[in-house]
Specification:
- The chain is an alpha/beta fold.
- The chain contains 16 helices and ten strands.
- Helix 8 crosses helix 16.
- Bound molecules: fe (iii) ion.
């Protein structure tokens, strides 16, 4: 009796297992459709790896964060999307609140992603960590003069601060974190002090604040470190030059820690390829994918087993805020109103 025939006599679960082990990956079926706010070049090589390993075809649609969420909402049950990839816990929470995501329970995801970096109910999972510390002008500010986010509202920093507008989800999430730690009244007093210290009316993105420091318009800003990392390795000489004028200060080391956020993903509420979407999510959180996923955008791996890149290591270790980032999304509306009352344009 041949082995092949013998296998037929085994219980069916064994046969299915055997068949899947013997089948070449390319024959495994199915596809998975992604709506991604993460740019194609920041994800495509990983998706190719995933396809090669599993035989699952990946279809990628990229777009702006708000557009993709609106599209999911308007498509409703007819959406082709199985997985939404976007940045900031504020936006991931907005997607949950818009009911376009579903809960996923997965041992692999829980093992690889610390609880603070995923939705408590499993609607979305963080895949990379970004830090938003203080950046300062190397030639004008002594790091020993810096301490906390709270201190940036002190009168001695009048006219020294450049910050982007309150439309930025990054600033909204930072303020939401302040509310979570210090309460609304204290945070409002702080925000008013911060606004009083602005060197100019908020404009531009994080990179523009770094350039403004280099140009001498201001001495301090709040920015996500991956922008600084991107500028330091930029092919644009002016950008690279500006970035070398600026250094990172990790605030709140003795208290609540540095404000951190995530980019992440959630399986859509009406996913037609749910199992493949979960497989892809688990793949992106795996040790193998995590190193590349974080490094390519100068972010920190969400998976604590993977060390950060050399660029990030050069800025030193820091204490990260341990608040669950989902809280930043929950307090988003409160943060926006507070920034408005504080006159943060
Ligand atoms: Fe960004």
């Amino acid at each position: 009796m041949s082995n092949r025939l013998q296998s037929r006599t085994l219980p069916s679960v064994c046969c299915v297992l055997l068949a899947s082990l013997l089948a070449p990956p390319a024959l495994a079926d199915g596809e998975v459709n992604i709506y991604s706010a993460r740019k194609e070049d920041l994800i495509k090589p990983l998706l190719d790896d995933f396809s090669q390993q599993t035989g699952i075809t990946v279809n990628l649609v990229t777009g702006k964060e708000t557009e993709l969420l609106q599209r999911l909402q308007s498509e409703g049950i007819n959406t082709p999307a199985d997985l939404l990839l976007t940045s900031d816990a504020g936006r991931l929470t907005a997607a949950r609140q818009a009911q376009v995501l579903q809960t996923i329970q997965s041992e692999a995801l829980e093992k690889h992603i610390p609880a603070a970096y995923r939705d408590p109910d499993g609607y979305w999972y963080g895949l990379s960590v970004r830090a938003r510390p203080i950046l300062y002008a190397k030639d004008r500010i002594k790091p020993t003069a810096l301490s906390t986010y709270e201190d940036l509202a002190a009168p001695r920093w009048k006219g020294k601060l450049c910050v982007r507008s309150s439309d930025s989800i990054y600033n909204q999430s930072l303020v939401a974190g302040m509310i979570a730690h210090h309460g609304e009244a204290n945070t409002e007093t702080w925000a008013k002090g911060l606004v009083a210290n602005f060197a100019r009316s908020p404009k531009g993105g994080d990179r523009d604040q770094i350039k403004a420091i280099a140009a001498g318009e201001c001495d301090l800003t709040l920015a996500n470190t991956y922008y600084l990392g991107g500028m330091l390795t930029s092919s644009d000489q002016a950008e690279q030059q500006a970035a070398t004028q600026v250094a990172v200060f990790w605030p709140d080391a003795k208290t609540t820690g540095v404000h951190v956020n995530v980019s992440g993903a959630g399986v859509t509420a009406h996913a037609k390829n749910r199992d493949n979407a979960v497989k892809l999510l688990e793949f992106l959180a795996s040790d193998q994918a995590q190193r590349w996923y974080a490094d390519v955008n100068n972010e920190y791996p969400v998976n604590p087993a993977i060390p950060p890149s050399a660029t990030l290591k050069a800025w030193g270790a820091f204490k990260a805020d341990t608040l669950n980032v989902a809280k930043l999304g929950e307090l988003n509306a409160e943060a926006i109103k507070l920034m408005d009352r504080a006159g943060w344009k």
